[in-house]
Amino acid sequence: MQKLLFCVLRRSKAWFCRKMSTIKPEGKIRRNDAVMFLGKGRVRIGIGNAFGLYPSPNYFNGSAYIEAWYEDALVQIGNNNYFNNKLSICAEHGCIIIGDDCLFGENVSIINSDFHPIRISERHKTTQKSKDVIIGNNVFISNNVSICKGVHVGNNAVIANGAVVFDDVKENTIVRGNPAVVYKEKIYE
Ligand SMILES: CC(C)(COP(=O)(O)OP(=O)(O)OC[C@H]1O[C@@H](n2cnc3c(N)ncnc32)[C@H](O)[C@@H]1OP(=O)(O)O)[C@@H](O)C(=O)NCCC(=O)NCCS
Fold this sequence. Notes:
Layout: H1 2-20, E1 26-27, E2 35-39, E3 42-45, E4 50-51, E5 64-68, E6 74-77, E7 82-83, E8 88-91, E9 95-98, E10 103-104, E11 109-111, E12 133-135, E13 140-141, E14 146-147, E15 152-153, E16 158-159, E17 164-165, E18 174-176, E19 181-184
Parallel strand pairs: 1-3, 2-5, 3-6, 4-7, 5-8, 6-9, 7-10, 8-11, 9-12, 10-13, 11-14, 12-15, 13-16, 14-17, 16-18
Antiparallel strand pairs: 18-19
Bound molecules: coenzyme A.
Coenzyme A (COA) binds next to strand 18.
């Protein structure tokens, strides 16, 4: 019975996301993956990526959310990345690029803009400026991580649980905290 219920839910989630999406991604996602693609921009997806994990927290509470808001926005995801539940990736203009073989924990947010200006008189407008986010290969992004505009993350880096990343992360480096700072460097094993 549980198997059947799970199967029905998985398929309905995927179906609902496909119907609600406004962008058709270039490339393929797995048939049963629940990912909503919104906006007017472009999304490119490689092969072998998996979105959503069961059993893992929040599997039943929604889908992955990928937004490429304006026409000039691009979200590009390479190959063989694993995304746990509650992923959100939002590009306003410009791009968010993810390489290959990365692991993403639960509740990860990646944004390439502040979306609203800081100036009080303009706060309810949109910013119209974005800074590209680039994530390399074989990066491990833990649970509850936020990656903010303009950040480049080097190959093999690790972002610790709960980190909020405002600055670039060098390759083979672990960062932690809010704002995220270097915890360990030169990890090669
Ligand atoms: C970054 C990480 C790998 C570090 O592991 P570790 O090297 O074994 O670290 P330890 O647990 O030995 O802790 C070492 C120090 O870092 C601190 N620390 C550990 N994790 C931290 C975190 N996420 N944020 C801030 N500080 C952290 C510890 O308090 C300790 O500080 P101290 O030296 O001042 O006492 C680990 O904390 C982590 O974030 N793992 C990812 C878990 C996760 O979300 N997995 C995804 C599941 S899908």
